[in-house]
Amino acid sequence: MRDNQPVNNDETVLREDHFLISRTDLNGRIVFANDAFVAVSGFTRDELIGQPHNLVRHPDMPPPVFGEMWRMLKADQVWTGEVKNRRKDGGYYWVHATVSPTIADGRKVGYTSVRIPLDAARRATAETNYRKVRETGMRGFAFYRGALVRRGPLVWLRRRLAINTSLRARLAVLVGVTGVSLALIAGVALSALYLAQARAQSMFAAGLVPVVELNEFASRIDRQRAVLVDVIANPSLDGIKHATAALPQDREQANRHWQQAVSAGVPAALRARFDAVAADRSRYDKALLAEIDAVSSGSLEGATTIFSEQVQPAYQALRQHLSELLAAEVAQARVLNENIDRDVQQAQIVIAAVFVAVLLGLIWYTGRLSRRILGSVEALSAMSKRVAAGDLSATVSSQSKDEIGRLMFGLSVMQKTLRATVGQVRGNVETIVGASREIAAGNTDLSSRTEQQAASLQETASSMDELTATVKQNADNARAASQLAVNASGLASRGGEVVGDVVETMGGISASSKKMADIIGVIEGIAFQTNILALNAAVEAARAGEQGRGFAVVAGEVRTLAQRSATAAKEIKGLIGESGQRIEAGQALVERAGQTMQEIVQAVARVTDIMGEISAASEEQSGGIEQVNRAITQMDEVTQQNAALVEEAAAAAASLQSQAQQLTEAVSQFRLADGSARHTSVVASDATARAAAPRAKAGARPAAVPGSGTGSGTGSASGGASGGVAAPTPVASPAFAPTPRPAMAGGDWETF
């Protein structure tokens, strides 16, 4: 984190018409600063342009604040917050800063910062919070929408719901409350229905089921008594058989209905009655079993006695208690039915009350939200109408932090930025008028020089045409010589091949002569052996005497022929030897001639290559000169066009002067705050005076455009704004005239 020192306690309080605007590249280096920012910061424009924006960071600002700012900017979000900046002289000033990404052609190219005066309440809160963060760190604090706030349940709730800072959240709350209310009403209704259903089921289980089963039980014992009375009154075999078969079945069914009535549940209030009926039923069941046994055995007298003494008393007691139990069950079912009616009525009352409460709450919340939205829209509409009418002194403020509040704040910043821009345009119009006059004078001078340059280019073009023709002729000659060298190289190559063939032929002749010498040697050997044989034959003929005389004559002839053959072979061998020596000498000469031809071929090939290179170089030189000639021709055409454009520029300068006057009249229609108008007038007049001086020295040099400089991106303290045109530096009001000091170097953009 950059630490700009020294600092002092001299505070600069911004006026209401001070709107500090700056733009940076993606690396945080300043590329534009309006006059108000230059004046308040105490730096010159040249000291600001190209430097990191943290050049004005005050050491009292906690680093986490800028960490949060960078996090939001990298997410393409707008950051707003309270910032304490350092002036060049070590003083400070407080601003409310809004930083947003700058978008051009659909991509992010930098960041724009708009800073306005900070009210006392926000300044006190920010100063206290920043001091505590510096002392204890972020403990007890958190960032909410870029702002440093205290940590706590309320902050957590606001961050989760954003009720006080989001119109979307308010609408979501409205929809959510409506949904919850409908769900609550539906829940109450369903609860009432469930309760009524449970009561009905309870009434059915605890009242109706036992009543039905007990009635069936009573019906069965009544039938049993009727069967017994019929058998006793009219005894017959069929009656006894029928009673013997029917009574056990009726008894079993009666017991089943009784057990089902008991399993349905016995209410505590009816437990005593159930116990009494159960005791009577037990006595009646024992008496009935005894009666069935008596009837089954055919003892009518015993059956009559049991019926009158046991069955009838037990039946009457059971029937009486059973009737009382049934009456109690019916009474309890009636009470359950009344409870169900009461629960339904209570549920209806609760549903109606909840509905009315929710309806009133929604009407109140909707009315409040509508008043909030409509009030803000009316304020924005009034402001837009005043701005449309040219009144830029209109102001709008909002304490809300929801979307409407942020919209009103954004429009307020836009109006203030527009006011500052119009004020700066007023001051720069005079500069444009003076620049247009100088541009016209410069264009006249440039037109004269352009005509001279055009004449020089025409002469140069003529010389280049002659040079082009000469080089082209040289290229043609080199091309012809290269072709002749190629032909000579071909002839030399073919001569070398012929000499090689001769060498091979001489080698073959030498080999043949060697073979002939070998053959002559063989002939000499044969002649020598023949001579030996002839001698041997003569010796044998001498031994034979007269019989061998003829053989001796023949042997002598043979010896003579052998001697002649040997002599001839010796002469031929001598001739062949001499021929072989001559052939070897000729072969050596031919080989030397072949080597010489090979060297000639290589030399001719090198000459051919050199001639080819000369030809290619000549062609390239010819092409290059033609390109130069074309370029000079184009330069001549461009110069002629420039001359025409200079004349048009002179006319455009005159038109620019007229349009500047019209722009002055158009800007004068806007009504600004008095302080702002006076400030921009001073800035404009001074900027015009200082901008005219360098232009007078530079001749026809165009005037600098305010705010058009671009940072060098090096971050050095002395880098200035290399690579761009610095805007004229305005004269600040007396309150903002600090002593200049060198700009600090290094560091990325960390603060505003």
TrEMBL record:
Q: Coiled-coil region(s) at which residues?
A: 628-666
Q: How does it sit in the membrane?
A: Multi-pass membrane protein
The chain positions of domain PAS read 25-60
Q: Name one GO biological process term.
A: chemotaxis
Query: Keyword Coiled coil, does the record have it?
Result: yes
Disordered: annotated span: 693-752
List all membrane-crossing ranges: 171-196, 349-367
Q: Which SMART domains match?
A: HAMP (SM00304), MA (SM00283), PAC (SM00086), PAS (SM00091)
Q: Which UniProt keywords apply?
A: Cell inner membrane, Cell membrane, Chemotaxis, Coiled coil, Membrane, Methylation, Transducer, Transmembrane, Transmembrane helix
Query: Composition bias, kind Gly residues: at what positions?
Result: 708-723
The record's listing under InterPro entries reads: Chemotax_Me-accpt_rcpt, HAMP_dom, MCP_chemotaxis, MCPsignal_dom, PAC, PAS, PAS-like_dom_sf, PAS_fold_3
List residues of the HAMP domain.
Answer: 371-423
* Record-level GO cellular component terms: plasma membrane
NCBIfam families per record: sensory_box
Q: Which family does the entry's similarity section mention?
A: Belongs to the methyl-accepting chemotaxis (MCP) protein family.
* Official protein name in the record: Methyl-accepting chemotaxis sensory transducer with TarH sensor /methyl-accepting chemotaxis sensory transducer with Pas/Pac sensor
The lineage is: Bacteria, Pseudomonadati, Pseudomonadota, Betaproteobacteria, Burkholderiales
